[in-house]
Automatic annotation (TrEMBL), chain A:
It holds the Pfam family BPD_transp_1. It comes from Frankia nepalensis. It comes from the Bacteria. It is found in: Cell membrane. This is Sugar ABC transporter permease. InterPro entries: ABC_transporter_permease, MetI-like, MetI-like_sf.
Automatic annotation (TrEMBL), chain B:
This is Carbohydrate ABC transporter permease. PANTHER family: ABC TRANSPORTER PERMEASE PROTEIN MG189-RELATED, ABC TRANSPORTER PERMEASE PROTEIN MG189-RELATED-RELATED. The chain crosses the membrane at residues 49-70, 109-130, 142-163, 175-194, 215-237, 272-294. The keyword Cell membrane applies. Coiled coil: none annotated. GO terms for biological process: transmembrane transport. Belongs to the binding-protein-dependent transport system permease family. Residues 104-294 form the ABC transmembrane type-1 domain. GO terms for cellular component: plasma membrane. CDD domains: TM_PBP2.
From TrEMBL, chain C:
Residues 1-27 form the signal peptide. Keywords: Signal. It comes from the Bacteria. This is ABC transporter substrate-binding protein. It holds the Pfam family SBP_bac_8.
Length: 312, 308, 452
């Protein structure tokens, strides 16, 4: 029952079985059963259902869905809006990445370096954007970004910049949505990076400092390597968890416009399902999104996993 | 009993990397006598400038919302950011003409319930995967990791039909149980945290005759507090901010949560921004409280430098 | 969420935890067994005199503002007059009405009566089990109840000669204007513009002589309603949707109507901003004219209070053609299956659209009295109109309203969104070529309306 080789640092421990082999073999499954069943029921079941629905034509209320084969998929590939939504989704993900990784990591490290009351105040203040309700967040930015009198344009005016219609301009709207949403992502991930840093042994750093390591040395060789896996995971996670927040900003502020520039596959899926009541096309979009994400994240996990093994 | 396949099992990326980095590669340089206090001051100034700038940007929308929540209907559209003349009328509307407390209660029950439920399912599973992975644990891990790739939004139609079928519309189970969709994330995060619990600590417990269940309760969970704090904040916040699911499954005015509830202020007869933002200010209170409670776990560990 | 307490609880009562897991797992497992038959509606069979409760889905109810208070007042007055009928009101965010009805119907529990916006009405007829209101009472009853109701409107909403949903909270677009800005610009607030050309001239006078913006014609709005598009096109003698339910907005009259609106923007008379920004600017006293629905009259009045003098005038005409605005707002539809509930629903609708009902609707929520005689009746709304004439120009145009036109088929909602997003907004805000854009989008919409 040794898993020493498996655990980084070889800190695995085995429970010497005091009694009964069978019980021993069954025990892990006893512990795992709830989560396995939960995921089968709430993820895999619905996933199969979605797959089946993607071959149906159904508006949710009609007594019987009708089988339409791959029509829904053809409809998606033929719809230039879906193609544009896919492209925008990739831009969203790429633009959001630094705000899910580098920015919160820098903040978390800065906070961690000087622990104390002041840092705790900073930490709490930095967390605030997450606390503000999504609809309220969107409404506030509607004010701040008002093309005629919004604070953002007023502030830019102090630097001699002309006012712009940030959300009304197809060339800037997507990035503005990213920035607005980024505040929440940064806030949450700063906290999570902070949790990751909590397991880093300060004594070690003090020792290194005594040995004459500069602050940068310590950051570079001790802190950042410690955060590498958190960095990868939060980066990948941002591909999954930020969409509801982007969604609420898009729904209130731009509704996918102007000229489809802030549209994305999640918003489009919502439109298909609950604005156009086309459960089949929505399901087809869901299947495409899931498959796409699986490929991207699967590759990501595979690559980082391989690198991880090289590193550790 | 160790199989070769298990040997190359590699830990998936962890939120909190359990790896304690060895103090290597740092050449023992001579201790610099005095690197000048000027430099240290400059560094301190840079440190605070960086954090203050970040805080300014991050806090701006919240302060703006707070200010508008005290503005009069006529003042809402004024350029003056300060709420003058100030009024409490928006708070009166939000609390008297709108069931804000009821919705906050619903949201708290939903978010706390979803967090608790996910942890209840995730902790034993993570413990088993970290400490006594069964034969076939790779398959289990794959099954869990794949659920991380499924965007919950894409399951909404089937989930809606399931919950409707169970007669759980406008109920807490209907709001909470489908959020088990995200349990996989908690399992993977916690698994790596549990692995980080030093063998010596657990070994001692086992030697003392503790059964796995007892070791989990007596040793692992207490050591896991910072991780549980961070993971529960993540789960709580995600659930708290949920908009689409409650609006579909619990649309009733008294049954829904605060997020869809706030949309009631954006009416056909004009948007009541003041009351909306007053309501949203009240809605921040439970989250701030939850954060303060949970983050103390995170911060304590933070202050006491890592694992004890 | 307190993880400490959670951990403690786990530590203290592991059995409780396991029991909970087991229970939820079991509950979840039963979910697998479910088939796809929606739960049956627990309909009650009761004759008309027995106590009965019907549900009423309304996007005004529950709104923490005048709409909610007015709706509550209506319900209270009805229950007082009909003690045997209890109304169970259900609130819903206005953006979610159709979604809610669709999901409620899918769940087997649609409301008995629902307030549905006209831009969603065609989709509602298509998707939902709506019982035409006119079919519920005997013809004589119907005629008696509708005596004095705006005939033009009733015939405008009728589908194949039958009223399926009764007009309820109705508004039509008007010009809101800031009389103070008019004076500053040297215009006479007593003689507001009546044609779109005069609107443009007045707007340019304002931008010329003051810091304020000129006019905003809210033809592209975040709610993706096309009532203003229809109003503009119909006032120029065209149609947005042909009699066949297919796009007609690529015809010359429609194209030139939108070109006229686009010209407001390109000439600088209209700022190229979103409708929400325009409402904010007008409320702040920085926009002299807002052409929008009377629904927002009360909230504009609130914002203007003590800041500037707010006035209204009728929807502008295009050249010498008569102004023909389209109504927006909502109608009342019946979804009850059970005859007793349908009867109760009819009683409720009859009351809401009665003289007493419209007195409350107009004076408390600010929608038009669809029984025009009430405005001058001292028993009903004469006192209201004596002190508040913001709605008067709209009331005067009630006889000119053109029917709301709907696209055909199950993709009707998609057609409206496509038209608004891909043609109207680019044309009026971003200088897209009207003829080319409208014709391209019309082709696209024809394509998917014909599908499946």
């Amino acid at each position: 029952m040794t898993q020493l080789s498996q655990v980084a640092g070889g800190r695995g421990v085995s429970h010497a079985p005091p009694s009964g082999r069978l019980r021993d073999r069954a025990r892990p499954w006893l512990y795992l059963a709830p989560v396995i069943v939960a995921l089968l029921v709430w993820v895999y079941g619905p996933l199969v259902f979605t797959g089946v629905l993607s071959f149906m034509d159904w508006n949710l209320t009609a007594p019987h869905p009708s089988w339409v084969g791959t029509d829904n998929y053809t409809l998606l590939t033929d719809d230039p809006r879906f193609g544009e939504a896919v492209r925008n989704t990739l831009v969203y993900a790429a633009a959001m990445l630094p705000f899910a990784t580098l920015v919160p990591m820098a903040l978390a490290v800065a906070l961690w370096k000087r622990p104390g009351r002041v840092s705790n105040v900073y930490r709490t203040l930095l967390f605030l954007p997450v606390v503000l309700a999504p609809v309220a967040t969107a409404v506030v930015w509607q004010f701040l970004l008002d093309p005629l009198s919004g604070l953002v344009n007023v502030a830019l005016g102090w630097f001699g910049l002309d006012p712009r219609n940030w959300l009304g301009d197809p060339s800037s709207a997507l990035y503005v949505i990213v920035l607005i949403t980024a505040l929440k992502v940064v806030a949450l991930n700063t906290l999570l990076f902070g949790a990751a840093l909590a397991t880093l042994d300060r004594g070690l750093l003090e020792a290194a400092a005594l040995d004459g390591a500069t602050e940068w040395d310590i950051t570079r060789h001790l802190v950042l390597p410690h955060l590498r896996r958190a960095l990868v995971l939060l980066g990948l996670l941002s591909l999954v968890v930020t969409w509801p927040w982007i969604f609420s900003n898009v729904a209130v502020l731009t509704q996918g416009g102007p000229d489809g520039s802030t549209d994305n596959v999640y918003y489009r899926m919502f439109l298909y399902a609950f604005a156009f009541f086309d459960a089949g096309t929505a399901s087809a979009a869901a299947v495409v999104i899931t498959a796409g994400l699986a490929v991207v994240l699967g590759l990501g996990l595979l690559l980082t996993g391989r690198r991880q093994r090289v590193v550790t | 009993m160790s199989s070769p396949s298990r040997t190359d099992a590699r830990p998936a990326p962890a939120l909190v990397a359990p790896t304690l980095v060895a103090p290597t590669q740092l050449a023992p340089a001579p201790v610099p006598a005095r690197r000048g206090t000027g430099r240290r001051i400059a560094r301190t100034v840079a440190h605070h400038a960086f954090l203050l700038a970040a805080v300014a940007v991050m806090v701006l929308p919240v302060l703006w919302a707070l200010a508008v929540s005290f503005k009069t209907p006529g003042g809402v559209f004024d350029e003056n950011p300060l709420p003058w003349p100030a009024t409490l009328d928006n708070y009166r509307v939000a609390t008297q003409d709108f069931p804000v407390w009821r919705l906050l209660l619903n949201t708290t029950v939903m978010a706390a319930g979803a967090t608790l439920l996910q942890l209840l399912f995730a902790v034993p599973g993570a413990y088993a995967l970290a400490r006594f992975p069964p034969r076939g644990h790779r398959a289990v891990e794959a099954l869990i990791v794949v659920t991380l790739l499924v965007p919950p939004q894409s399951l909404i139609i089937p989930l809606f039909l399931m919950v409707t079928e169970l007669g759980w519309r406008n109920t807490y189970p209907g709001l909470i149980l489908p959020q088990l969709v995200g349990t996989g994330l908690a399992v993977m995060l916690l698994r790596d945290h549990i692995r980080a619990v030093p063998a010596t600590v657990l070994g001692a417990a086992v030697l003392d005759g503790a059964r796995p269940g007892e070791a989990l309760r007596m040793v692992v969970l207490p050591l896991l507090r910072p991780a549980l704090g961070a993971v529960s904040i993540l789960l709580f916040i995600t659930s708290w901010n949920e908009y689409l699911w409650p609006s579909l499954i619990a649309p009733g005015m008294e049954d829904t949560t605060i997020q869809p509830g706030l949309a009631f202020f954006l009416t056909q007869e004009g948007s009541a921004y003041g009351p909306l933002l007053a309501g949203s200010m009240l809605a921040t209170l439970p989250v701030v409280a939850a954060y303060l409670l949970a983050s103390r776990r995170v911060t304590d560990a933070f202050m006491h430098s890592g694992l004890r | 969420m307190n993880p400490v307490r959670m951990a403690t609880r786990l530590r203290r009562s592991p059995r409780a935890g396991i029991a909970l897991i087991a229970a939820t797992t079991l509950a979840a497992l039963t979910a697998c067994g479910g088939a796809d038959s929606p739960a049956a509606d627990a309909g009650t069979d009761s004759s008309s005199d027995q106590p009965i409760t019907i549900s009423f889905l309304s996007y005004n109810y529950g709104t923490p503002d005048i709409g909610g208070q007015g709706t509550q007042a209506l319900i209270d007055a009805f229950e007082k007059a009909h003690p045997n009928i209890t109304i169970k009101p259900q609130g819903v965010a206005v953006a979610d009405v159709l979604t809610r009805l669709q999901t409620d119907t899918a769940a087997g529990s649609p409301p008995d009566v629902a307030q549905i916006g006209w831009s969603k009405m065609a989709a509602a007829y298509e998707l939902l089990p709506i019982v035409p209101v006119q079919d519920i009472p005997p013809a004589a009853d119907w005629d008696a109840a509708m005596e004095g109701f705006s005939e033009n409107l009733l015939s405008a909403v009728a589908v194949d000669g039958k009223v399926k949903a009764v007009p309820y909270t109705i508004s039509i677009p008007v010009i809101f204007y800031n009389a103070d800005l008019f004076r500053q610009a040297g215009l006479d607030p007593a003689k507001p513009p009546t044609t779109i050309a005069e609107v443009k001239a007045a707007a340019l006078a304002v931008t010329d002589k003051t810091d304020a913006e000129g006019v905003y014609l809210a033809v592209a709005d975040p709610g993706k309603s096309d009532y203003m598009t229809q109003s503009v096109i119909a006032s120029n003698g065209g149609r947005e949707v042909g009699a066949d339910g297919m796009p007609a907005f690529d015809q010359p009259a429609a194209v030139s109507a939108l070109a006229t609106v686009a010209d407001l923007t390109s000439s600088g008379a209209q700022p190229a901003i979103a409708a929400t920004n325009a409402v904010a600017a007008f409320s702040a006293g920085k926009l002299s004219m807002l052409i929008g629905s009377t629904a927002i009259a009360a909230s504009l009045q609130k914002a203007a209070d003590g800041k500037f003098e707010l006035a209204t005038t009728g929807f502008p005409s295009f050249g010498d053609k008569p102004a023909a605005p389209t109504y927006s707002g909502a109608g009342l539809a019946v979804l009850a299956k059970d005859p007793a509930r349908q009867q109760a629903a009819w009683e409720f609708i009859k009351f809401l659209t009665s003289a007493e009902g419209f007195t409350i609707i107009t004076s408390q929520i600010g929608y038009l009295p669809l029984r025009p005689a009430l405005a001058t009746d001292p028993k009903y709304l004469a006192p209201y109109f004596a002190s508040n004439d913001l709605l008067s120009p709209a009331l005067a145009q009630l006889d000119d309203v053109s029917p709301y036109q709907s696209f055909t088929g199950k993709n009707a909602s998609k057609a409206v969104v496509t038209l608004q997003d891909e043609a109207i907004e680019p044309i009026v805000l971003r200088g897209a070529d009207p003829a080319a854009t409208l014709s391209a989008v019309a082709g696209d919409i024809r394509g998917f309306l014909a599908q499946k």
